[in-house]
Structures are given as C-alpha cells and as structure tokens.
Amino acid sequence: MTLQFLLQILANGLALGSLYALIAIGYTMVYGILRLINFAHGDVVMVGTYFAFYGMGIFVLPWWLAFPIALLLAALLGIAIDRGAYRPLRNAPRISALITAIGVSFFLENLGLVVFGARPKPFPRPPLFDQMLIVGGVRILSLSILVPIITVILLFLLLYIIYRTRAGMAMRVISRDMETGRLMGVNVDRIIALTFALGSALAAAGGIMWAMKYPQITPLMGIIPGLKAFTAAVLGGIGNVVGAALGGVILGVIEILLVGLFPALSGYRDAFAFFILIFILLFRPTGIMGEKLEEKV
Q1: How many domains does the chain have?
Q2: Contact at 8 Å (CB) between 251 and 232?
Q3: What is the DSSP secondary structure assignment for residue 294, as one 8-state letter?
C-alpha cells in the first residue's frame, strides 16, 4: 500500500463523508428539538436536487443561481412538511409522528415518480467541479476538494446561527424544554419551522453535490444517502450538530477505506454502514459526542 493510494482514499472518503455530514445535520436538528426521526429527510434530498436540475435545464439558469434557489425551495418544502404533517401532531403520541414521517417519505417518492418520471436523468456537473487536479501525485477531482470546503463553510454558518443569534438561542431552549420555552415567550412553531428550513436546505446542498459526484438522479435517489446519513447522525451522537458532521466524515472514510482495501467486499459497502448502526445502538446508543437526553412526554 503506497502513500499515494492512502491519500487518494482519504480524499474520496472526506468528499463522501462531507455529503453524509450535510444530510445528517438535518436529521440531528429535528431530533434535537422534537425527538423525531424525520424519515422524509432523504426524500427532501431528492426533491432539492430536482429543483436544481430543472432550474438549469428548463429555466436555463446558471448553476451559481440555480443551486441557491434550489436550497431556498427545499427550505420552503421543509416548512410545508412541518406545517402540513407534523405541526397538527405536536401533542399526539410519538408513534403517530413517526408513522406520519414514513408516510410523507412514501408520498414524496411516489409524487416524484409521477411528476419527474422513473427514468434516470443525467445531472450536469459545472466546469468548476469537473477539473482534475494533481496533488502530490494523486489525481483528485476538484469536486472532491470543494465538497469538504463547502461543508465546513455551511457548518460554521449553522453553528453561528445556533450559538450567536436569538433564533438559535430559542432552538437550544426548546430542545431542552419546549413548555419552558413557551413560557419565556418563544414562538415554538416558528422556531421548529426554521429548524426544518435549515435542515432541508442543507439536505438539498448535500443532494446537489451527491448528484455531481454520481451524476444521475432518480426519484428514489434519496433513500440510501438518507439512511446512511441517519447512521452517521447516530454514530456521531444524534441531537449534536458537530457530532453528526463528525459521524458523517468517519462513515465516509471507513466506507471508502473498506472498498479500497478489500475490493471484493465493495458490494457490501451499504451493509457495512448499517452494521455500524447496529453496533453503535448496541454498545453506545448516544454516539461519539451525544449525551443522554430525557424523553419528552
């Protein structure tokens, strides 16, 4: 095994892990406030990617304009999902919200099949992300370098919102005690909607970069990335934003390392990721950086 080979694996693993991290953050934000696993999150990844695809294809927008618009539309979709599906169940038993999340997921997938069609579509990769760079003898696609950089920038923007703004303070308050937050004058529904908006925008960003890395999109493309991002969130500590990002990077590096060192096992890469999920749930359910949270009733 050469140093160039390890650097190649590390570059590819960081790029893949950064995608998992962006999607995992949305899972962990919603769970941190509502204690709800939003299983429709992976399908928001898909819808956000199609927004960007049609923005460039039908409306002929440049990628640097189509991508932010897709993030905005995905944020509005997240707000609509919360308002239409989850807000009416705020005081319902937890299982009702979980079943609703699964129902929303199936709805988005089948709506996508009807509206977008089942045939895979090629996703265009802008020239900025399609350049081949040679670093230390290692051939790296510019996308593999830009994805971690974009992920770090978005993560720091999110952390700024959470820890340096009034809305972020309100998020932290209601994540601990929603009723106390209401007594302190926090508009809980508005803050939860903001949480869904931020998580959905990050999911769309992850989906767009996923489509550039694997340039083919389908209405079912969000299932596997969504499940792996959930695994990453559990690995890092669901409910912890930094932990979810760390879990995504670790999962991506391990997955690429497995494929690189044991090519014969490449067909089991998805199964290996879910084995990690089972292992973490059995031996450290709070994850790497998570903390034990009291159940909300």
Answers
A1: 1
A2: yes
A3: P
> How crowded is residue 200: how many other Cβ atoms within 10 Å of its Cβ?
31
Which value, to the nearest 10 degrees, does the dihedral of the CA atoms of residues 282, 286, 287, 288 take?
A: -130
Cα angle, residue 282 at apex, residues 281 and 288 outer, rounded to 5°: 55
Residue by residue, pLDDT tens for the chain (297 residues) are: 677 878 888 888 999 999 999 999 989 999 988 888 899 999 999 999 999 999 999 999 999 999 999 999 999 999 999 999 999 998 888 899 999 999 999 999 999 999 999 999 999 999 999 998 887 777 888 999 999 999 999 999 999 999 999 999 999 999 888 888 998 899 999 999 999 999 999 999 999 999 999 999 999 999 999 999 999 999 999 889 999 999 999 999 999 988 888 888 888 888 888 898 899 989 988 898 876 655 544
Is there a domain that residue 291 lies in? no
Whole-prediction pTM? 0.93
**Encoded tokens for 17:** 């892990």
Whichever domain contains 167, its CATH number is: 1.10.3470
Does residue 294 sit within a domain? no
Burial label, 38 (beta-carbon count in 10 A; 0-12, 13-18, 19+)? buried
Instruction: Tell me the C-alpha distance between 68 and 112, whole Å.
Output: 21
